[in-house]
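hey m, so remember when u said the tokens were messed up on ur end? i reran from scratch. heres the input so u can diff it against urs
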Amino acid sequence: MPQPLLVPAKGDAFDFNLHVVYLWTATNMTFDGLRLRAEALLPWAMGIVRERAVDLAREHEPHRSHDLERALNDLLMHQRWPQEAHLPQFTVRLRVSPDERVREWLRPYWEQRIALECEHELEKIRTRQADDLTRRWAAVLQNLQDEPVTAYAARLTGAEFAEVFQRYVTERRDIVPKLVELLREAVKGHGDLGLGPSEYTQAWDIALRTYERQQGLTRQSM
């Protein structure tokens, strides 16, 4: 297999390595005859490729080997040498790699980039899991508050959880009497104005009775 061709990168301090695949074709020639002619013409073919690649390579910085690879293949892939149709002709495909010294300097950059991208993906996973866990616990707490059976079952999950949940329920229930009193005052105050059993006062009264039943409170005469 031919050795890589060396062409200078921008600044001439480093080289690109051109790994070239030569595709030979011919008419009216046996396979063995084509192989012998291709081997004889290979140094000339390598010179053709290097000559075409040098100027373009010098336009690319030493760490831009992928960009050079695309540019060279775009330039050379549709060309054929030599022009004489009765002679064996070749086309090329290239792969470009950077100077080994450049590869060593690029390694820490890619190691850090890979680590950062992996950490970023882990953070996204943690965020999704935390969000899912929060939603699940919100549903659990709501069920424990609404269902007496599950509220008692919460005691079986551990003393610490039972204590936290009890504080949560107590704080929620502390608000209930204040809200009920506010509703009662609204209904009573509206009646004091002598407006009669309007749709407004009836709606508030129904809302108050419903809320009291849900919270297990006894309606007192007003």
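this time it looks ok to me. The chain has a mean pLDDT of 78. if urs says something different then somethings off w ur setup not the seq
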